[in-house]
Amino acid sequence: xxxxxxxxxxxxxxxxxxxxxxxxxxxxxxxxxxxxxxxxxxxxxxxxxxxxxxxxxxxxxxxxxxxxxxxxxxxxxxxxxxxxxxxxxxxxxxxxxxxxxxxxxxxxxxxxxxxxxxxxxxxxxxxxxxxxxxxxxxxxxxxxxxxxxxxxxxxxxxxxxxxxxxxxxxxxxxxxxxxxxxxxxxxxxxxxxxxxxxxxxxxxxxxxxxxxxxxxxxxxxxxxxxxxxxxxxxxxxxxxxxxxxxxxxxxxxxxxxxxxxxxxxxxxxxxxxxxxxxxxxxxxxxxxxxxxxxxxxxxxxxxxxxxxxxxxxxxxxxxxxxxxxxxxxxxxxxxxxxxxxxxxxxxxxxxxxxxxxxxxxxxxxxxx
Length: 368
Ligand SMILES: *Cc1c(COP(=O)(O)O)cnc(C)c1O
Hints:
single chain; alpha/beta; seven-stranded mixed β-sheet; four-stranded antiparallel β-sheet
């Protein structure tokens, strides 16, 4: 008897729920006969990439016959200066996603426990599962991480705690004081991963200072990305900050050329583009206010956001409403897979995109 390919697979992989990326937008548009859809499904920066990044990438194109700098020297040096730490505290990843996975692979093994909020970014659960560890899921409280409960769930088997702040898909953040209380409760030999992909979009009074723990030598890994406010999602580059011994371990498991040369060049230039950053933040604030106002007028409830996306309760079948919106050329994310079947997650776009979303939503709700 030939064993099936499923039987040969690692049991941890066999149990994973496959990620289905769906068809390219262009293909869906062709099938539905729509053109020029607005993409509000992946929390990308609607303003586009920094012009400085584009120029740097163009300048670097002629060298793509060469392998990239595997140490990410210039980008890590720039990050070290920005955060006033030495380069040994920084690691680059093929998106921060890669760093989430690296961290799980470096620290979790079968029998360990990983504490994860639910619902949160699905990647935390899947990378933890791949290692054979047990995932301890702690329900959100009022759509926010319940850090108090998460700290209480620590056992002698706990190795890692994942904290998405702001959380995806809810857009909520915890208060800086809650993080302080949490870090006091959590034993020092547990690795805490803070995923701060939307940090630069947060209101200043909510921006956490988790780098403080990194500088103190706590087992903290803080992740940021160039995919969101920096507008470079397609390049795949993110970074992690952790005490040097932790970074050193991640580096052992890392693929040597994980961040390509164009990504390094683009990210380095984007990091310095204060204008692009400020404009993007402003655009997000304007869009947020507009959407709050319009959604309220439509009588819909939503979760106030600390990021560049909004979780909206559409009061009916979110999947069907997302489909209907797509036929009107507006792409948003239904939340059924997160157990939020009446919700949509919508990225805050440009004023024109937001207006188009509201208009389409109004029509869809009137039709249904
Ligand atoms: C978008 C996002 C990221 C960023 O992923 P990249 O791999 O850096 O593109 C990380 N965490 C969360 C919660 C996100 O929503």
